[in-house]
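LOG
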Amino acid sequence: MKHLLAILLLLLLLFILLAARSGTDSVWLIDIKGAIGPATADHMIRGLDKAQQADASLVILQIDTPGGLDASMRQIVKAILATDIPVVGYVAPNGARAASAGTYILYACPIAAMAPATNLGAATPVQMGTPTLPTFPTDKQEDNKTEADNEPGLPLTDAFQRKVVNDATAYIESLAQLHGRNQAWGVQAVREGASLSAQEALDLQVINLLADDLDDLLQQLNGQTLLVNGNKIMVETEHAKIYQHPIDWRSDFLSVITDPNIAYILMLIGIYGLIFEFSNPGFAVPGILGAICIMLALYAFQLLPISYAGLGLIIFGMGLMVAEAFAPSFGILGIGGLMAFVIGSVILMDTELPGYQIALPVIIAFTSFSGLLLIAALGLALKARRQTVVTGLAHLKGMPAVVSKMLDKQAMVHLQGEQWQVRCDQPLSVNDKVTVLETDGVILTVKKTTGA
């Protein structure tokens, strides 16, 4: 028994040693695929933190992106610059690209590599907000132009756009200086939207390596010394094992709810749920689901570049449509609400990036749904106005009755299960038939229709 325990302890110790060795010799692979947004940044940053905790020797960011949000890109760049582990940016597989925000991420990595048939560039920042019309500069503006304003590149229509481009230019220059890359081409990629193939990027010293695949990349990296946060680190990848950081449920969930269309739908479902709950208290389920949907939508919106004017117009438009349903104005409030709703939906996302726009069919679908609800509410209101009143005393007008008894010379009729005093210009007796003309409290004014 003692020998068995000793063997088990020895095996456990060996397992721990192997695990520790595999951690220090492991290479972590983190994918950056698709449009760069909050979910991509969260996945990459948490992966980098876990790689440090596992004492990984190297992290490879495999990039294939058309670009994305500036805020998310800067979060990724900050995480790369703050880590003590060598990070390699690798544009792969064949046919991939590191466009727009991907170019900045590649410049931020100590080592940049690309696979054949890939490209990078087109790093001009997309204008935020609604586009403006081009304006012709006045003589005074021409005199106040700076040397930076006269640099070649895409036409900049206003001061705000110039500031955005100048900021992006300085940013990519600082990243290029940090790792000894081609600054001039980085500026060209920002100002002129220039792009390069993998071979051209290697020739112009925009990247460091051209690798066919991961094995080729690891072979070329082996033995290289990298400067990471002031420390020289020799990369040893000869016996390294590749560990691919998986996309977990949190990243998947964040990716779903930060999709502008999903966040938009969640917000509207939440608002409609609360409206239904407030108009029909006691159901509970619509109110609870509505509150959950609104909280998720608000969480997504604080991560996305939204226009608060657009959000305000959507809420204001829905408020007008609800007001139309509860206090009908026969179309004025409803039509105004629909217009505000559509305009707010169109301008809700404060960016021109295609991947972060609300799809037009989604807007049309919810606008049509809201319009149908509005029409239904107006139809019910008109129908209610045309119907005969069925509550209160007014509905008794025109109803026939029969004198049931005389009480101290006061004629009484039995109507709808109750005894009523009646007033008539003609003398009445028991069993006389009458018709109700008016109501005055508990007394009915009637006219005699036939005799006894």
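LOG (cont.) second protein
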Amino acid sequence: MSVVQRVDDALKEGLGRGPLSGSRIPVTFDTPGSEWSARRSGPCVNVFLHSVEEDAQRTQTGRIGVVDEEGTVIGYRRPPRYFVLSYLVTVWAQTVADEHRLLGRLLEWCAVTEELALPQDGFGPQPDRLGLRVRATGGESSETPASRVWSSLGTPARPGLDLVVTVPLEREPIGTGPAPVHGLALRTGRLPARPEDDPAPRSARPRRRVEEVR
């Protein structure tokens, strides 16, 4: 399962436990084009992923030490890379009043929810939390990412939340060294003597000549 699929699952689970708790309103990730809206039946919350970008300001260079349970550095890894997934969250219901009521509940949930747990799939290093926020306005410009979505889809604009999800992607360790030494064992033993190392018999040793000097 890709990281985008896991983010989708985390959002669907978070919305189901939060503002949609106790209701049967489904969460869809379809493209909200004119054909989709014409086929839609019943209320729903649409979460449309419209852009994926890297947050270069948060991505760092260099290396980070990888330590074991005893605090020993056993290798190094590069810092994670941060990616921003932008979702346009809209409500589709029978009346405008119902849409605004549910949209308000979604806004309140987003205002108090800064993180979501990301489900793990067991393959490689994975992030376990992701950041969650509503995109801030970019000054006085009338064009926003959400407005560009509606114009590109050819669909009349409708109110929605531009939800920004930040995902850190860990990278594999590099330069992993050998396992650290946890102890040292010293053993002694007797080595067999070599024939050339055997001392010569005392009788076979040459005698020194000693003279008395007067």
